[in-house]
Model the fold of this input.
Amino acid sequence: AATQQIAFGELYIALQQGVVDGQENPLANISSAKLHEVNKYISLLGHKWECTPFLMSQISVRKVKANELDIIKAAAKEAGVLQRKLMIETDGTLLAAYRANANVVVNQADRAAFQAATTSVVEKWKAKPFGEFVGKLAAAAKN
Done:
């Protein structure tokens, strides 16, 4: 397969016109952009985990009282847990809708085969100076 970058705003038309024959997006993005209307197949692989970090500059941190910073950190952790819960619920709802849609074919890809094929890549990154982070990231993705 040859990969091609398409701006997300142009993806629907690119799929519709056959410029590309597939795309990779979370179920929520597929739904919101109605990509399932022009991309019949959804292959579930679970090969990618993304996070959006909660960041504050040191300047902002210095302006906040210590007890307030503790509150901010606790709220950020709580929001992260809630976001994951809501995403799991949303994915379940969307997946059920796609499976019920006669115009969409949902299949479970062979994740183990992909993992086996990319083991050397993971090991390569683990050998780097930040290799400990690779393990932490993998553990976080399982939670």
The mean pLDDT is 92. The two ends are 32 Å apart (CA to CA). Residues 8-109 form one domain. The chain is about 60% helix and 5% strand.
